[in-house]
Amino acid sequence: MADAPADAIWLRIENFGSGETGDKTVAYVQAAREFHALGIPVIADHTGGLSGLGLLAFGAVGGLAHGVTMLEGFKADAWRRPKSEGGQDGGPVTRVYIPRLDLHLKKAEARAFLKSSTRTMARFGCRDTHCCPGGIDGTLDNPTRHFVHQRSSQIAEMSRIPQSIRPSRYLEDNVRPVSGDVSAAFGLGAISAELRSKFEKKLKAMERFQQAISHFSQIDEMNSMAEVPPRRSERKQSS
Ligand SMILES: [Zn+2]
Fold it and tell me: Which residues contact 8 (CB under 8 A, 6 or more apart)?
């Protein structure tokens, strides 16, 4: 691919997405690094969440691309099936992103969860006045604005950390807190059985994720870094 006329490589990996396992995230990091020798930016397409942030933390990719509260994973089976007319509810539904749980919930589910107690509201509700000036009602009224702002601030925060310490900060500031918050959410009394089983699944997944990422961060030498794609403003200047 060295002489391919391209200014960036976009990776769209089947069966990889947000909420991916630690082992698959590590495998992605190792595979994406093979492209660094080409000297052009590598971007992870259809990826987000904690696993996507991990790709950035380990310098495997220089950028992430995904839809708004959707398309954070990729499965090619959709291409093999003929398009259905409209779908059950007339298209994809915007979900509510709960950053502290690394989960998206359906709107009704999110409302029931966030409003289940004042403690839940305080711990899991968005307190960022940039996206949710009205607190939880603001989040539920405009889940898109909330998601875009929260996701871009996670990435901005990551990019301010020197590369050499990004993996350890990612573990401390992103992975461990999510494990703790999911565990707390699972222990809540006033939630539906459906939500509890969702949290239980996430809790088990987080234990394995944390273990795999923590092991990898200890053995990884990080000897290559992805180039960061130019920002929109930089692209405009050069064209
Ligand atoms: Zn918000």
Answer: 40, 41, 42, 43, 229
Query: Which residues, in sequence order, are CB contacts of 211 under 8 Å at separation 6+?
Result: 22
Burial zone of 21 (CB within 10 Å; 0-12 exposed, 13-18 middle, 19+ buried): middle
**What is the spatial distance between Cα 196 and Cα 199, in angstroms, rounded to a whole number?**
5
Of 95, 203, 199, 108, the closest CA to residue 150 belongs to 95
Report pLDDT digits (tens) over 5-53.
Answer: 999 999 999 888 878 899 999 999 999 999 999 999 999 998 889 999 9
Q: How far is the CA of 121 from the centre of ligand 1 (A)?
A: 13
Q: For residue 199, how far is its CA from the centre of ligand 1 (angstroms)?
A: 21
Q: What are the residues whose beta carbons fall under 8 Å from the beta carbon of 68, sequence distance 6 or more?
A: 94, 144, 147, 148
Q: Where exactly are the structural domains of the chain?
A: 9-78+94-230
pTM score over 0.85: yes
Residue 126 token pair: 């968005």
Q: What is the DSSP letter of 94?
A: P
Whether residue 237 contacts residue 220, with contact meaning beta carbons closer than 8 Å, is answered with no
Q: How far is CA 149 from the centre of its chain?
A: 13
Are 174 and 154 in contact, with CB atoms under 8 Å apart? yes
Distance 133 CA to ligand 1 centre (A): 8
Ligand 1 centroid to residue 208 C-alpha, Å: 28
176 C-alpha to ligand 1 centroid (Å): 21
CB 43 within 8 A of CB 229: yes
